[in-house]
Design a protein that fits this description.
globular, Nucleoside Triphosphate Pyrophosphohydrolase, about 160 residues, four-stranded antiparallel β-sheet
Length: about 160
């Protein structure tokens, strides 16, 4: 099985009760809302990644105002060739950002095609990726370790207690 690690940086930008999101075509062609951000280039600092990616996807410049936390996901994908599987591990660094300049525009020829501000109370009704919910929890709860407990898996110390 092929193994792939992808490290990416994203920003939660909230102002006036709204969050900035970008729209991705989605894997099945159904558009879904995502956090602005994306994969690090080799040798790039994640702080620079989030500012570059946000500018590419939304047209805005941001000031990174804090580190909210880290999220990790792991999935196995079945490729086009028979018996070709990829064990994909995504590490997502989630920052808080404040828009400091630029103008809202859409990315052309990239991974997203639209950007918009959404009321925080309307996010639950959007078709969105899981990371949007994770990032909003990090933003609201601000856990000291920068990591959310996943309901579907116990913490390592809990596994030893059972």
């Amino acid at each position: 099985m092929r193994r792939k690690l992808r490290v990416a940086a994203y920003a939660v930008c909230v102002r006036d009760g709204q969050i900035l999101l970008a729209r991705s075509p989605g894997p099945a062609g159904t558009p879904e809302w995502v956090l602005p951000g994306g994969g690090m280039e080799h040798g790039e600092d994640p702080y620079d990644t989030v500012r570059r990616e946000l500018a590419e996807e939304t047209g805005y410049r941001i000031e990174v105002t804090g580190l909210l936390g880290i999220d990790s996901s792991r999935r196995v994908f079945h490729g086009g060739r028979p018996h070709r599987r990829t064990d994909h591990h995504g590490v997502r660094i989630v920052y808080e950002g404040k828009v400091t300049g630029g103008e809202l525009r859409y990315e052309v020829g990239g991974s997203t095609d639209f950007a918009a501000w959404h009321d925080l109370d309307a996010v639950a009704r959007l078709t969105r990726v899981r990371l949007v919910d994770v990032a909003l929890r990090l933003w609201r709860e601000r856990p000291a370790p920068g990591h959310l407990r996943h309901r579907d898996r116990p913490l390592p110390q809990e596994m030893n207690e059972e």
